[in-house]
């Protein structure tokens, strides 16, 4: 299988993971497709950064940031809560493999490897959470800017 075919299969699987998790958490059906697209967009940002210039932390940060910002935009467009698009969007970024390896290493008695995996899990989870915090900050700044602009327009009418 050539790399392009492999990349396309990855993209389809990421989209399906967002839709599948949306089905598991009982998302409204009109939000499933968009949740899968949001998961794909966040993962694509992660994939580009991890394969070009970034490390694990920055790739997850920008992936989380992208998912957070896109969720707010989609929520306003669909008139639904943004959390409906946040959670399925996160599924491709969650460090499940590292968490599994950490628990397995603890069980096997390899504590140094377990702590290494555990620190990776904490680093990834913290990066994703920080991305969401910055996305909320961006949204609050945007809302304040829109409110101030509206007040300025009202003031100029007088």
Tell me about this structure.
This protein is mainly α and 158 residues long. The protein has one domain (3-157). The protein has 6 helices and no strands. The protein has helices spanning 3-24, 29-52, 56-78, 83-90, 96-108, 111-157. Helix 3 packs across helix 6 (111-157). It is globular and about 75 Å long. The termini are far apart. The chain crosses the membrane at residues 6-25, 32-50, 56-76, 115-138.
What topology does this entry show?
Layout: H1 3-24, H2 29-52, H3 56-78, H4 83-90, H5 96-108, H6 111-157
Helix pairs in contact: 1-2, 1-4, 2-3, 2-4, 3-4, 3-6, 5-6
Order of helices and strands: HHHHHH
Strand elements, count: 0
Uncertain spans, ≥5 residues at pLDDT below 50?
A: none
pLDDT averaged over residues? 93
Based on secondary structure, the structural category is mainly alpha
Count of distinct structural domains: 1
Distance between the termini: 68 Å
Helix content: over 70%
Largest sheet: none
- What count of helical segments does DSSP give? 6
Shape: globular
List keywords for this structure.
transmembrane helix, 158 residues, mainly alpha, 6 helices
Task: Please provide a brief summary of the model.
The chain is mainly alpha-helical. Helices cover 87% and strands 0% of the residues.
